[in-house]
Design a protein that fits this description.
single chain, 142 residues, alpha/beta, 37% helix
Length: 142
């Protein structure tokens, strides 16, 4: 499946909300400093898809490189495929904006998460085939 547009956008949580944001997913494990949960404008908080506390701390303390951070975070996301697939399905129908308080969006966890969602969107193609995705589940329908 090829896309002519970018269904996943990255944005800082501090930026103004726009209609073109579509579904707004807050992708940080902790609340941003100085803001209350009630002040944040998002549709869903996806804590489980954020880097683990230990990985996040190693990255912020500069104990590991961005390459190492990416490698470890990729492995953490491998165990969250169901949730990633759910977001990919959302992205097929609407724009999705991943929100974070990080200062540099391009050197953060967001591009890595976005990559996983886009891969799921391509791999699952959610209904673009006439064949059933699971013959066992759909054997009585044939």
């Amino acid at each position: 499946m090829e896309f002519n547009y970018d269904p996943i956008k990255l944005k800082r949580i501090y930026e103004e909300k726009h209609k073109k944001d579509g579904i707004r997913l807050f992708a940080d494990r902790i609340l941003p400093r100085g803001l209350k949960k009630s002040e944040l404008e998002y549709d869903e908080w996806i804590k489980q898809l954020c880097p683990s506390a230990s990985l996040r701390k190693k990255w912020h303390r500069k104990e590991i490189s961005y390459s190492q951070f990416s490698e470890h975070y990729d492995k953490e996301l491998d165990s969250q495929q169901y949730k990633i697939d759910c977001i990919a399905e959302m992205a097929k129908k609407n724009s999705v904006t991943l929100l974070s308080a990080v200062k540099d969006l391009e050197i953060s966890h967001l591009p890595i998460l976005k990559k996983h969602i886009l891969l799921a969107l391509e791999e699952n193609s959610f209904g673009n085939s006439n064949e059933y995705s699971s013959p066992v589940c759909y054997e009585n329908l044939q």
